[in-house]
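User: Please look over both lines:
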Amino acid sequence: MRRITRIATVGIMSAALALSVTACGDSSSSSSSSSDSKDSKAAIAYDIGGRGDQSFNDAAYAGLARAEKDLGIKGTEAEPSEGESDADKVQRLTSLARAGNNPVIGVGFAYAPAIKKVAPKFPKITFGIIDDASVTGDNIANIVFNEEQGSYLAGVAAAKVTKTKTVGFIGGVETPLIKKFEAGYAQGVKDTDPSVKVIPQYLTQPPNFDGFSKPDLGKAAAQGQLDKGADVVYSAAGLAGSGAIEAVSKAGKWNIGVDSDQYAQEGLAAYKESILTSVTKDVEDSVFNLIKSVQDGKPENGEVRYGLDKDGVGLAMSNPKFTEMTEVIAAVDKAKQEIIDGKITVKTAP
């Protein structure tokens, strides 16, 4: 797998600038398909934080890696640069398309302006964008999730396990997408136990997106919520969320992770026992499915939505301490079915 590195994430706590091109080999990259065939190559362009965030970007990478192994495609990864502009994203996507990658997938809503400009210039190439449905076209697949539904289940769990009747929410950047996480979580808490207080906090405001990339911001915010009595903290903050997880873990309280099953992430192994569960988004499958659709000659396009009904969002069950909480699990399962059945409508804004 070829990796075009702009920022290489080191561990979970820092990001270092790099100007290099690295290659990671996989025997499955050499398949019977011709390397000149567009269907044999696929690329993902990472969101803020890049690969190694133990969350959103890593889930996208898992989908690309699985496509290399199972489909025999050659994958390319492109990292973001610090403080980059839309023009930088346009250049990145253009380069990936010219190299014959199909599909080219932008990981995150920040790629919407770039895909709007680049996709019409390469009508035979499918462009995927995760977490955005605002930019449309015949060769654009809008991969979106019902984050509010998974977050509602997290709210149910948080309301059930809190002992202080105070829980926290940390959003990386105050955008409509992250407010979906807050809305679902707060509704789940209040529907389960109206006496529980929810403390919401955002790390940065657009156009400052440091709230997705700087762990120290998450750590400080979590400490502030702990000081206010929160004993469960749900962080939807990308790489910055790792700082929150560290602070909450050291305080002996409960974390709720996001996007990936963070209990199972190697980079967070030191704090795993504090990660009660995670609100998962099946970004891995969504990336794999888009790549496979192109390879099969039936590329996905338009809105491709993943919700509770398709297990596209949900709660991770990796932590044995969580699964042993039978009353909590029963409440979560009940809420899940009621959402699927339409008995509960989850808000998408606070």
About this structure: Residues 176-192 form the longest helix (17 residues). The chain has a mean pLDDT of 90.
